[in-house]
Amino acid sequence: MAARIALVTGGIGGIGSAICLELADRGFKVVAGYYPAEKDLAEAWQKKQATEGREFEIASGDVSSFEDSQKMAQEIVSRVGPIDVLVNCAGITRDKTFKKMEPEQWRAVITTNLDSLFNVTRQVVDGMTERGWGRIVNISSVNGQRGQFGQTNYSAAKAGAHGFTMALAQEVARKGVTVNTISPGYIATEMTQAIAEDVRAQIVAQVPMARMGTPEEVAYLVGILCDDRAGYITGANYEVNGGLFMSF
Ligand code: CAA
Known about the structure:
Elements: E1 5-8, H1 14-25, E2 29-34, H2 39-51, E3 57-60, H3 66-79, E4 85-88, H4 103-131, E5 134-139, H5 142-146, H6 152-172, E6 177-184, H7 190-193, H8 197-205, H9 215-225, E7 237-240
Parallel strand pairs: 1-2, 1-4, 2-3, 4-5, 5-6, 6-7
Acetoacetyl-coenzyme A binds at residues 93, 95-97, 100, 141-143, 148-151, 154, 186, 191-192, 195-196, 199, 203.
């Protein structure tokens, strides 16, 4: 059987990049989606991976735009093939206390982190249901589950992501398509490096494991959820947070 095709949005970012590697190592043909302004970074990333023995496709698309997401998906389908796995990983932060938050900071996070789930998933879900197999994994956050000082925008978008997961999971369950959420805690990436050092130290001190997670620790779970054998897991949320927030 030909390799299944996976699109990872935010594929050249901290967690996204590890997800691309995990899926490639599991035999998927992986397309790393990237933000159009990061073309040079994406090409450098692709080249670096090739020198390390992994061939990836890359695809440009602004996931906050429906039209751009549509173009990206169409281009992938014609150049690489139909998309069997979608990992919605693209995301940004614009941290500000609510009293200081400007409408642009609210909108940027809601469109990039939440509208994107509609914009990109809408392009691929019909193909998955028609072919009778698909995997959709939405990367949310511990801060969608418990809120975070300075992140009303991000927490709202990430909480919304799991609502999206649970609703879509019901609509496609009979068609061999699963939809799940992963909620990482604080993972060592550029995004968490941007938090002021003292604030970051306070946060890490609250983590029972007393450390940040690694992107690979998130990617491993994505790999499992995309496996054929994970076909009965749907509408679920998985925490990868070192014990920072526990729920069931
Ligand atoms: N709880 C209660 N009060 C707090 C607080 C907290 N956690 N943190 C700060 N405060 C208080 C301060 O003591 C200060 O009080 P006074 O005004 O009485 O002195 C006040 O709030 C400061 O308010 P400001 O509006 O001036 O805030 P600031 O500009 O100093 O900082 C911020 C705002 C930059 C958003 C900062 O709060 C921050 O960095 N928060 C952490 C945000 C965070 O965790 N982001 C995660 C990014 S990574 C990610 O998102 C990935 C993922 O999924 C986990």
